[in-house]
User: Fold this.
Amino acid sequence: MEKTVKKVKRIEGSLRVPSDKSISHRAIILSSLADGISIVKNFLKAGDTLTTVNAYRKLGVEIVEKEGVYYIHGKGLDGLKEPDDFLDMGNSGTTTRLTLGVLAGFNFFTALTGDDSLRKRPMKRVAEPLSKMGAKIDGRKDGNLLPISIRGGKLTGIDFFNEKMSAQVKSAILLAGLFAKGETTVIEPVISRDHTENMLNSMGAYVSREFTKDGYRVTVKKADKLNPIHINVPADPSSAAFFAAAASVIPGSHIELKDVLVNPTRDGFFRKLKEMGAKVEYKNKRDEAGEIVADIYVSYHELKGVKVKPKEVPSMIDEIPLLAIIATQAEGETVITGAHELRVKESDRIKSVIENFKRLGLEAEELPDGMIIRGKQKVKGGIVDSYKDHRVAMGFAILGLVSEEGITIKDADCVYISYPEFFNHLEKVSK
Ligand code: S3P
Assistant:
C-alpha cells in the first residue's frame, strides 16, 4: 500500500497512542514462565507483539483474549513444550532474541525463522553468550542468521559485557540466567531499557542492580518460580514521539499524549526535543506497575539543531530516524554519532533516511555511525521508500505534513508492526 501525506495547517488534539511494544512483548514472554494466570490490560495488538503471542502458543502456553484483556496461563519455569514446527518470528527482533534466551533453559529442539528483514539481522550477539552458558545453537552464516536452531540444557551463569548496549541481548541473557547455576551478570557502559529487570523484580525473581564508574550492572540468580503479574501496559513513547515531533515543527500546534511511558531509559527523544526548543511538559506523573507514566504536552516552538552524543543514543535509539527528519526543519546543523546500531534494525536506518533525503532533495551527510543534517530546508515533496520499516514509514509521514506538495510513502502498511492506527490518528489530529 502507498500512502500520501500532505501539508496541514497545524496539529491539534489529544491521543492515547498504542501501548508499549517492549513491555507488551515482555508481558507475554515472562508470564508464560510464571506459576499461574497473568492478566495484561492494554496489550499492544500489532504485528510484532502478535508474533510473540503466536510463538508462545506454539510453545504450549494458553493465551486467551477476552474483551481486550489478555490472560496468560503460565507454565512455570519447566513447562514449555517442544514446538512441532518452525517458530515464525515474522519481523520481530525482540521476540527472537528474548525467546532464544528462554529456550536456552529448555532441553528440547526449536527452529526459528523470520521474514526477509529478520533473516538478515545479527543473532550471534545472543547466540554466543547463550552458547557460553551451555545452550546448543546453530544457524546460517556460522550461527549468526536465521533460520537458527536451539537446544537448551544445563546452563551456568556468566558475566557479560554488553558493549552494544542492546536491551534485547541483555534480556536474553538475564532470562537464561533464571535457569542457570549461580549468578548471571550483565554490565553495560550506559543502561539500556530496563523493562526485563523491572518485570522480573515484580514477579519475585532475584534482581540486583547498581550503577558503578563502569556503568550499570544487573545480576539475576537461578529462580525456583515466578509469580504471575497483573499489568496495565502504558502508551509507547516511541509511537508518541511521531506526534510530539509533528507538533514541534508545525507553527500553532499543540498535542496531548496520554498515559505515556516515561521511563528514563526510554524518554531520551522527549528530552532532546526540549533541548531543541520545543515546549515539552510532563503532567500527572505516576507509577504504574514499576514503570513511570505521564501525560505529555507538546507545543510548537522554533527548533534549533543539536548534537546527539553516543551515551545519549540508548534512550532514544528507535527515535533517531525521526530526530534526523525533524532536524531538517531546525535552525542550524544536527550531528548524530554513536548510533551504529541503527544499521542493523528492521532496515539500515541510516541508509534508509539518507536515501529518502536524496529522493526529496534534502541535504545530509552519512557517517558510519550517524548523520549530519542541514537545518531549515524546504521540503517540496516526492516519493520515498519505507524499506518495509515501520519507523521509517511513520517518520517520513511526519515530514509530509510540512511538505509543499505531499510525500508518498511506498509500502506504508508496515506501520502495522507497531502502530496499526497510525494513519487514522494522524488524520484525527491534522487540522
Ligand atoms: C528493544 C530493544 C532495542 C529497540 C527495539 C526494542 C527491546 O533493540 O531498538 O525496538 O524491546 O528490548 P536493541 O536491543 O537491539 O538495541
Residues 22, 94, 166-168, 171, 193, 317-318, 341 surround shikimate-3-phosphate (CB under 6 Å).
